[in-house]
Amino acid sequence: MHALSVTVDAAREDEAATALWDHGTCGVEVRPAAAGQVELLAYFEHEPDPDELERVLPNAAVAGVPVPEVDWLARFREGFRPFRVGRFLVSPRWEATAPTPELLVVDPGRAFGTGTHETTRLCLEALEELASHRPLGRTLDLGSGTGLLAVAAERLGAGPLVASDIDPEATDASRLHARLNSARLHVVRADAGTAFRPGSFDLVLANLMALLLIDRVAEIRGLVAPGGALVLSGLLLDDVPLVRQAYSACGPPRERRLGEWAALVFDAPDAFSSPAASSPR
Length: 281
Fold this sequence. Notes:
The protein is an alpha/beta fold. 29% of the residues lie in helices and 30% in strands.
């Protein structure tokens, strides 16, 4: 990463910003400078040409500036504090207290599946609601990321539990979080539901992108045993009508919303699996 400082009269701010974007900047920060002037701090993935910018911006002061090295993971960890989602206390491992049934310990390597995103929170809330009126039973966390949802399901009495993801970093993270939480998870690296027999699970959690949920609808729906439950998350509000339509054979879902995100909960429909999907492989 490279950076240039460009100081111009305040009236030329737009002219300078346009020139920087034309030269390939990936971001511009505007700062106050001396009276009547502004400083534009521009970042580049490639090494920029200050002489060319001086030709384009006469009377501008153009200089290269060092870019500080930032440990973004350390920065993220500094701001990650324990927080509650329903009955659960989600805590980073460096602040975790004595184990309790409500504690979910996380160690973010990448910031996925930490419970901080709205879609993960929606799934945790849906799990708690489901567990309040039915056994969760055999559970699959599809696209598991850190495996946090599978750990939460175990805390609520589910089992056996499978955490599945196609990303090897994610399956490593799921195994790590199983150890951190003393949870008994079977971790599988697989492409969506292709590794599992249809009708194998009483509960399927799928916190995935809407396009993938729609593209794999028959496969995902077929994983759920008759009378089981299905939780779909990762949905922007605009995605909800399309996903509802794709899963209409599952009956009307309960919809949960948080900010601009939503989750759909299909609870105990009798017709999840088609006759073809229910036959063993």
